[in-house]
Automatic annotation (TrEMBL):
Record-linked Pfam families: EF-hand_7
Gene3D superfamilies listed in its UniProt record: EF-hand
Keyword Isomerase tagged: no
Protein name: EF-hand domain-containing protein
Sorted UniProt keywords: Calcium, Metal-binding, Repeat
Molecular function terms, GO-annotated: metal ion binding
Organism: Pagothenia borchgrevinki (Bald rockcod)
EF-hand domain location: 25-60, 61-96
Length: 158
C-alpha cells in the first residue's frame, strides 16, 4: 500500500490500498477507518500505528502478570522504570558488550530499557503503558493464556 515508500500511509494511499485489495467500502467509512489507525492524528499511518490497531488486546489475566513484572522493575513505585530502578534487579555483567568493554553498565541498562520504550520517544523512562504495549505485541503471537503467563512468571521470576 505504501506506493511512495515513505514508510507511512497517507489517506490517498490508504484508500487506493483498500481498493487494490478488494475491500469495498465508501469513502466516508474508509476515512473513518483511516482515522482509527492514525493514532497520533498526524494524517499518516506509520507501521507501528498499523500494528497497534490490528493486534488483539490482552486478556485481563495477561495484563495482570505483565503489570506484576512492571511493578517488580519499578523499585521506586513511581510508575516509571528508569536506570536507577534497574540497579539491583537487572545485572549487566553477563551482557557480551559489557564483558568485552564495548559498553558501560549505563549503556547496557539503557539498551534494556529501549526494548520497552516507545519507538518514537526513547527517553530512558518506561511507563506501565509502554511496558504493556511491548507485551501486547509479544502476546499476539502466543495463543494460550496459560503459556503466556507461565512464560512471564518464568522470565521475570514472579
Amino acid at each position: 500500500m505504501d506506493d511512495n515508500s515513505s514508510r507511512s500511509l497517507d489517506l490517498k494511499e490508504f484508500l487506493k490500498g483498500l481498493k487494490d485489495y478488494g475491500v469495498l467500502m465508501d469513502k466516508q467509512e474508509a476515512t473513518a477507518l483511516f482515522l482509527q489507525f492514525d493514532r497520533d492524528g498526524n494524517g499518516t499511518i506509520d507501521f507501528d500505528e498499523f500494528l497497534l490497531t490490528l493486534r488483539p488486546q490482552m486478556s485481563r489475566a495477561r495484563q495482570e502478570v505483565v503489570l506484576q513484572a512492571f511493578r517488580k522493575l519499578d523499585r521506586t513505585g513511581d510508575g516509571v522504570v528508569t536506570i536507577e530502578d534497574l540497579r539491583g534487579v537487572y545485572s549487566p555483567k553477563h551482557h557480551p558488550k559489557f564483558q568485552n568493554g564495548e559498553w558501560s553498565e549505563e549503556q547496557v541498562f539503557r539498551s534494556f530499557l529501549d526494548n520497552f520504550d516507545s519507538p518514537n520517544d526513547k527517553d530512558g523512562k518506561v511507563t506501565s503503558e509502554e511496558f504493556l504495549n511491548y507485551y501486547c505485541g509479544v502476546s499476539a503471537s502466543i495463543d494460550s493464556d496459560v503459556y503466556f503467563i507461565l512464560m512471564m512468571r518464568s522470565a521475570w521470576r514472579l
